[in-house]
Amino acid sequence: MKLKELERPAVQAWSPASQYPLYLATGTSAQQLDSSFSTNGTLEIFEVDFRDPSLDLKHRGVLSALSRFHKLVWGSFGSGLLESSGVIVGGGDNGMLILYNVTHILSSGKEPVIAQKQKHTGAVRALDLNPFQGNLLASGASDSEIFIWDLNNLNVPMTLGSKSQYHEQPPEDIKALSWNRQAQHILSSAHPSGKAVVWDLRKNEPIIKVSDHSNRMHCSGLAWHPDIATQLVLCSEDDRLPVIQLWDLRFASSPLKVLESHSRGILSVSWSQADAELLLTSAKDSQILCRNLGSSEVVYKLPTQSSWCFDVQWCPRDPSVFSAASFNGWISLYSVMGRSWEVQHMRQADKV
User: Fold this and answer.
1) Residue 20 DSSP class
2) Where are this protein's WD repeats (predicted)?
3) pTM (2 decimals)?
4) Residue 339 pLDDT more than 60?
């Protein structure tokens, strides 16, 4: 069931679960152009009020940005201070990384840009904030570069690994980064060649690599299990192998489970932090699917009118709500509580 919608060719980030009221941040997408062919960037914040029956979001703040965005994340760093709403981090073109003070965007008072750094090579497409230490930010870009930043001191980021570790293979773009939800020193990275690398920050080296050896897996995203420290999912955007692989690092020679519900490549994955059985994906078959990982059953199916959704995200504050950003320039908010017509219809048919 659609709850809200917004016409923006943008990437998105939910406010942290501790934040009230609930907000959604949008940043002009570096991957899209509208009919004006403008390359200007804008960062906006909207209040999400589900008590309002209209489909509109309430505009709360806007800021011209130095760069258009490949990725946005919103963290609670600094929110222990009075009146603080945390930080938004944006990854842009040409290695640009920009930090914003959310309170200053909402109040339109002081300078909202905390810092801007340009240490990466190429577009910064992967960002994740550590769930245990909110000051630790992982960023990934071209040439297999992964940096770990301390938001308290952004001068010299820690570089994960070394260039020599990649000599056996050419450097790749980092497609996604994800901190482990149980062990705060563990980070994983997804690579287009089909592998995921698990890093131990205490040793500053990769401790295990997983790949399915098919040479057709083209990783577009990954996510750690919310509760089981050794499990993660990888998804593939290759139309020849549009699958989700569930891996367990305790026996990492092959996937624990392979899910094949999409008919074309998968563009985005999001694992519910409130219900570890629910996994949300969007793909080039113009569908958003929610699966129960325990039964492998599709419990929610949403056709998106011939438009590809390149990013789906569960809402951290409301476990039944998710947002979807699509290439047609719309961001839509949905609830899975209403279930989808297709799944309801199939279940009724099964009972007959």
Assistant:
1) S
2) 117-159
3) 0.90
4) no
